[in-house]
Give the backbone structure.
Amino acid sequence: MSIYTAPLQDMQFVIKDLVGLADITAMPDCAEVTEDLVDAVLLEAGKFAAGVLDPLNRAGDKEGAKLADSKVTSSPGFKAAYRQFVAAGWNGLSGERDFGGQSLPHVVSMPVQEMWSSANMAFCLCPMLTSGVLEALKLQGSPQQKAKYLHKLTAGEWTGTMNLTEPQAGSDLSAVRTRAVPEGEHYRLHGTKIFITWGEHDMVDNIIHLVLARTPDAPAGVKGISLFIVPKFLVNDDGSLGERNEVKCVSIEHKMGINASPTCVLAYGDGKGATGYLVGEENRGLEYMFIMMNQARLGVGLEGVALAERAYQHARDYAKTRVQGRAIGQKSGDRVTIIHHPDVKRMLLLMKAQTEAMRALAYTASAALDKANHHPDDKERRKNQALVDFLIPVVKGWCTEQCVEVASIGVQIHGGMGFIEETGAAQYLRDARITTIYEGTTGIQAADLVGRKVGYEKGATAFAIIDSMRKLDSGIVAANNEQTRVARENFQQAVEGLAVATQWVVDNFPKDPNAVAAVSVPFLNLWGIVAGGWLMARAAMIANGKLTGGGDLNFYHSKIITARFYAEHILPQSAGLVRTVTDGSSSVLALTEAQF
Amino acid sequence: MKVLVAIKRVVDPNIKVRVKADGTGVETANVKMAMNPFCEIAVEQAVRMKEAGTVTEIVVVSIGVPQCQETLRTALAMGADRAILVEVATEVQPLAVAKLLKALVDREQPGLVLMGKQAIDDDCNQSGQMLAGLLGWPQATFISKIVVAGDHADITREVDGGLENITVKMPAVVTADLRLNEPRYVTLPNIMKSKKKPLENIKPDALGVDVTPRLTTLKFEEPPKRGAGVKLADVAELVNKLKNEAKVI
């Protein structure tokens, strides 16, 4: 079993040198965030992740959460760890200061969240859902609702859930049937919600559910869905807990992974109905949900980074200790650890390069989100909002798809031992598998990308990003050297291919949306691969500029080599994807249903 | 009661150390550093004593390069009230450490000095003892328990044969062993607060101490690489090998 070590050096490199922490701290809202504060936060979060959360991960997978008499008991050690997490104040990392949080920007909270997910993804989902509820209430809650719920949710003393899915309403939420009937100041809810992450558990005294439901006269479809707060225990005006609400966990799912995270079926109203309070206005629920969904999607993309990192560390440690065979060309002498075999090295580099590129992209999106929220210049805010909106489906879709691949390579490096649960490599693959599905499948992300993010705006943001990618060389010192040549040149070819494919989507979206939909996922992956290549090339050039300084030369050298590996082993896939996008839709559409 | 806690910045205990190629020392450039684990236990003890009401103020001191400020900030985040860095760029040997700490004790007048029993880098295990000698104070080393009661402290020490209970008069110098406590995880609000706590930076000259090393290190070298083991047939063969090959019995 490997022990998780937070990749502080790469995180700090990405935040400070690649993304530009200085741009964030220069904004008046973030003036308190100094570089040494960021270092201290990351260091201590890394200790907590490695010391408290990581050791529970395996037992959580084996034992899982248990349901008895409508009550869920969390996996062994989780309750104590959660209490410790809350007592240490980590839940309030990015929460608003008015409600007891620390208001730290995303560029700080994302690496911390990555650490939680790497160490124990099932655990991390609980605070992640709470932060989604916080976000929704912060934006749409009434002052009374904020006063009642936000302090406790920010501290993590209560947790939150998002209740969207019903058996007949999965990716298509227009089919939601849960009913909400007004009764004086509140509503009465009846219905069943499924797939509710941490929907019921024993780690805290109260759970605040956000529930999508229809009021009696609501129009059909997505425009008739409202959002309600349904607390597990009603909260009295003095903040104390009152009556137990009519919401009951009737079962928890048996899953492929994240076993320690109880995925609940919640039944609302088995008598007079569960008491719910309307958030914002009636019929605007889905719109509100999407506000927080954006951030949640970024969070899931980050889970992809986190699990890829964890799987990489696990495989790397194994490859450095497992002795098997002699080095190629050696007929006698000592047997070597498998990291000496070139194909194992290649697999490890694939994991490492992919993970670093994904981290760079996810953190770039988080910095854009900070600028969109806090930049004093309105134009910059809008520009960065467009950037983050564009990147979110790419981060979510690409990082999670690649994370499954990376975790699978992790199993491969272990050989037969990887297929056996004891080594722990399989858990990362099983846990990773949900990330391409929840918060919108990869197909949904791709539909968002080709539609709202590219098609409807005729590629305006996409081509603005492509233009800034093309300007790769400007502004970076000492770029023109042999060591970074491959990373730069292969990238420059790839970005032109990306432009061709993007133009194809822009041209075909209005006239043949089916053709565009048929190749939307390859298009999303193309964007991920090329954006990753862009950031890796930049990282190589920055690292190259630092070779003459006094820093850790070993780190910079390895960054340059990793970027070159990315350019040689991953980036060339983009050329094939360009062809798939421009030529590949007709075969998809040609085969009839009967021919399957 | 005011307590002075001395802490040292060392190579992170999870890192495998390497000897420099020229044999002049251990490689510390670009190596992850951390607070010496025994010092962390000393800080934790001081914070627990403050939480229990025995201690009113915790002053942490570190001696070394400017980056020791990070280590001091960690101690502040754990719950210390203020920090002093005695900035020295060169090697500081235990006697110099003890002299610097004595000068600070004279200035700060604490009722107790808490230290780690030794640092995991040079493993000297001397500074606490020397400081007690210079001050003419009682010393209690390798402690696993301390209860302060008025003008004395009841202490449990870890010794080879087991545990030793002693009583020392206060003020005293006390050095922490591993089982004294388990240091806490730092909380996020305390990390934020630690940035605003006072940190004083002084030079050895200001304390009137000459830190010139008195000992010369001849050479550092890695321990010899362990060879492969062999399977022995029976005890007789083992005894034979211990006698004639290893020559240890």
Remarks:
- The first helix of chain B runs from residue 37 to 51.
- The domain at 2-244 of chain B is CATH 3.40.50.620 (Rossmann fold).
- Chain B has one domain: 2-244.
